[in-house]
Each structure stands twice: as C-alpha cells, then as structure tokens.
Amino acid sequence: MLSKQKVFTLGLQHVLAMYAGAVIVPLIVGGALKLNGTQMAYLIAADLFTCGLATLLQIMGTKYFGSRLPVILGCTFTAVGPIIAIASTHNLATAYGAIIISGLFVVLAAPLYGKLLKFFPTIVTGSVVTIIGLSLIPVAMNNVAGGEGNADFGQPRNLLLALITLLVILAVNRFATGFLRSISVLVGLVAGTAIAYGMGIVNFSTVGDASWVSIAQPFYFGWPEFSLTAIFTMIIVNIVSMVESTGVYFAVGKVIDQKVEQKQIVNGLRSEGVAIMLGGIFNAFPYTAFSQNVGLISLSRIKTRNVIFAAGGIMIVLGLLPKLAALTTIVPNAVLGGAMIVMFGSVAVSGISILSDVDLRKDGNLLIAACSIAVGLGSATLPAMFAELPEFARMLLQNGIVSGSLTAIVLNIVLSKTKDDVQVEDNTVPVLVKESHVS
C-alpha cells in the first residue's frame, strides 16, 4: 500500500512527463491569435484546470462514464490548426461553440464506435500501439536537441543534458529498488534540471511574472457562437482523437496486464466527450488520452489509479495557482527529451510485445503490420506529403496514429481469409496479456 506522500510524488512525476505536451497547445494557439499576456495566462491556467477535471472523469468511472483505466487526458495537438483557422475566420467564441457541440457528438457516438471494435483484433492493436510509440520518438529527439525553433537547437550542451538525464533514469532503474526505482523519471528530471541550472540554462523569470491565483471562468472569451462548418471541422478532429485514444487504451491495457473491455472504451470515450465540452465551456481545448504517460506506467511499474487521481488533482491546483504551474516550466527541453526517449521507446516495445502474440506467417499478418507501421510512421515524420489534400483529409492523414490505424484495419479486412480473423467477442477487446519488462 502506497503512502499519501508516495502517491503524490508518483502523481507529480506523471504531471511533469505530460506537462510540456499540455501547455504547448495554448502557447501555440495564443501566439498565433496574438492574445495578450493576461489572456495567455488564462488560457494556460484554464487548460491545466480542465486537464485535471478531464483526468478525474476518466479514472473515477460510473455506469456510463469513465474507463477506470490509469489514463491521463490532455489537450490534443490535432485541434491546434483548426482552432486557429476557425478563430481567424470567425472568432474564438465560434471555435468554442464548435468544441462544445463536437464534445456532445463524441458522447452520443461512443456506443456506435464501440461496435466497430471488432475491427481491432490483436494484429491491429499491436500495430497501432507500436505506431504510437514510434511516432512519438521524433518528438523526443526534437526536445533532445533543445526544441525546434530555439536559438540553441542542436547545441552540444543540449545533447549532453539529454544524455545525462537518460543515464540517470537508466541507473536508477538498474540499481535502485522499491519506491526510488518507481520515480526514476522524476529523479532524472530533477538531476538534469539541477545540472542545467549550474550551466546557467534554467530561467526563473516566468515564475516571477506569473500571478498567484487564477479561477477558470465559463465563457471567458464570450458566449459560444455556432457555425456548421466549424462544428463539422471539430467533429472530424474529435473522430481522430477517438481513434488515437483507442490505441492508448490498448497500450495501457498491455502495460497493466488487463483485458480491455468494449464497455471500458465506450465509457472512456463518453468521458472524453464530456471533457471536450468542459474544454469549450471553460475556453480551453478538446481532450484526448495522452500516450506520453503509458511508457511511464511501464517504467514505474505502479498500476494503481490512485496515482493518476493524484496527478489530476495536481493539475487542478496548478490551474488555480499559475505561479506553481510556472515552476514546472523551468525544466529544459533537452532534459525532457532525455526522459522522453525511454518513455516513448517503452510504448513502442509494448506494441512489439503485443505483436509477438501474433503468428506473422499467417494470412497476411506480416503485411498488415509492416504496411500500417510504415504508413503511420511516415505520416508522423513527413506530414507535408498530404499538404495538397482537402482539409478534412489532411486532419486524418497527417496524424500517424490515425493513418496507420486505418491502414491496419483495411488490410486486416482485405487480407484475412476467414470471417473470424476480423471478429472479437462482443464484450472484450483482444488480449493484451504478456507483461512488458523494461530493464
């Protein structure tokens, strides 16, 4: 039984692991729309507050809502372009009106989507989880170099910081035991940040400038307005997020050695729909299951939902206390990148472990895995290849997880020789049985 202090520390580790991904969306959207400092501060605080609420909705679970899986929800990057486009063409109120209606769509469409899970047998789920891990690795490497667009991108000191962080995480995992081993990523982040501070890289100015208290306000940017085009666009965004979240549920099921039931996925997606609506009401963002934290569960070997509950609570507090939230931003990109290497790599290995349960010599399984992984990774690393397609097609295909998943599903239907190859039981999603080990 973990003490409250240990649960809090493990929850903080999850928050730090996903924090960069959570705040980058409001930073990009706010910058593109030329919001002032006060508006930017609100956007970040509201985002963190709603991230926490969304995560609690996901893990608490009721008869119809919540997967009860240790999953953290964060704002989806897929929504960045569409929100900027809608707000530029109309205004932010129209963007948030579209987000609210699209969240309602997710709630209502979740049961129908659940009936399509028969098209996710083990060969498909294994390929999707592998794609999730592989498509995140370029993100990790971008951070290792210091973050694209930063003046010191590729500087040797960034590579050194990332290497030190990675080595600390590996050393703690190899030589420590018990609780210390379970917080190896947090230890690596603290050690890397301390060394960066000694090198004069850490900047505390954002902490000094941040306010102490910020309360999320419904409709901060005005009452919602509605446009059919904007609503349709955000529905497409959230369909993409539903597919992405399904892959994350499968990955978490693999890591915690639990069979993921169809009902869990439907209830989880319903909760995401509610979270998306909350994002629109509090003028934040659409939310989806964060794959960043799957690898962390594998590394820490802590599967209890209490830790994710703590992480959700921490995010709510950070959303209410911007000065504390700013304190978490002092971790340099290179340090985050070093931690991401092992976390994202663990997700990819979990997918490979799922594929090890599949006979790759049978009925085109090798081709299904090979083509879907190649398409998914290719889309993630070179999204510009779809730049000339219509907008709705770009949103689907530039997301490597979605393009890879669609490839796997279609090829499984086409290449499977028997009807049984594309069916699963009514109430369960295929096996995720072998436990992955990270040394």
Automatic annotation (TrEMBL):
The keyword Nucleotide-binding does not apply. It is a multi-pass membrane protein. InterPro entries: NCS2, UacT-like, Xan_ur_permease. Keywords: Cell membrane, Membrane, Transmembrane, Transmembrane helix, Transport. Its main location: membrane. The chain crosses the membrane at residues 12-33, 39-57, 69-87, 93-112, 119-139, 159-176, 183-206, 226-252, 307-328, 334-354, 366-386, 392-415. It is found in: Cell membrane. Belongs to the nucleobase:cation symporter-2 (NCS2) (TC 2.A.40) family. NCBIfam families: ncs2 (TIGR00801), NCS2_1 (NF037981), pbuX (TIGR03173). PANTHER family: PURINE PERMEASE C1399.01C-RELATED, URIC ACID TRANSPORTER UACT. This is Nucleobase transporter PlUacP.
